[in-house]
Amino acid sequence: MNAQKAELEQTRQLLASSVARLYWEWQTQAAAREVLAQIKHEQDNIIGADRELYQHGITSSVEGVETDINANKTEEQLAEVNGKMKAVEARLVALTNSSSVTLTRHELPTVDAALPPTLGYELLARRPDLQEAHWYIEASMSEVEAARAAFYPDVNLMAFLQQDALHLSDLFRASAQQMGVTARLTLPIFDSGRLNASLDIAQAQNNLSVANYNKAGVEAVNQVARTASEVETLTAKNRHQQQVEKDAARVVALAQARFSAGIVAGLAGQ
């Protein structure tokens, strides 16, 4: 019963984590789409300015080709992001058993945290999959004990109170067993082959449960290690991306300053 409860809780946790992961994946793709839309808007402005300069004979038609290529690449990225968002929405519909989902764009939370230097193995005890494996071990151990107990006859001495000429030496004699005693006396030793087989099966199931538990523990540790590595990688990428964003902002600010000072217009006039 406990193992089944743990298995049910594991299923619930897996479903909840899958929904949460898909939701934040959608939010991430929505943020990427917003950035790409801004880039596309700026690229369109540049293309429009290049065409205007070309029409006035200031620049040649070749100078705007690279901008057109970049704009097409941005459109391709936008289409890819939209496809990913639709795929996530379809998976959410399937997981939540709903006819449709309506998601709203939210700002991604600012995460400023690092992994602790140590993670104790005891934290894995909270995982439902390991709890399930643990309960299956206990259940299999109970089956082993039950199979061992079947080797010993269960004799109810009160069953002999109403019997005639019955002595302890007659208990295991087939000729002395009476109908009233047979219902209360079991002699499993006479069926040792079946009992040995039952014990072997119970022990094999117990060994299998222990092996599954150990395997689940190793997989849990590997999963934590992989997740921790992914978190560290994403943290490093995030720092790098923030630096790129700062550098890009400086370039934009410099270009705006040059434009305000008339440097860009002067170069275009030449």
Automatic annotation (TrEMBL):
GO terms for cellular component: cell outer membrane. SUPFAM superfamilies: Outer membrane efflux proteins (OEP) (SSF56954). GO terms for molecular function: efflux transmembrane transporter activity. Keywords: Coiled coil, Lipoprotein, Membrane, Palmitate, Signal, Transmembrane, Transmembrane beta strand. It comes from the Bacteria. It is a lipid-anchor. Pfam families: OEP. It is found in: Cell outer membrane. InterPro entries: MdtP/NodT-like, OMP_efflux. Its main location: membrane. Belongs to the outer membrane factor (OMF) (TC 1.B.17) family. Could be involved in resistance to puromycin, acriflavine and tetraphenylarsonium chloride. This is Multidrug resistance outer membrane protein MdtQ.
